[in-house]
Fold this protein.
Amino acid sequence: MARASKKFPQTAYVAMKNSLQMEWQYVHRTVSDAGKFFDGVEEAIASEFLPSVLKNISHANIES
């Protein structure tokens, strides 16, 4: 997903959000103390996916 975000950052973000959000919510509701199992996933999103998406956003797009 990080590789795809270099060319299509918005599409990659929406795909990641929509695909994982419902699954994670379900697991957190049904498995007690499930948060500890998501540490690796959260780290990968924070260190690889988000920097890849945000690197492609120019300051001009943010200011307008």
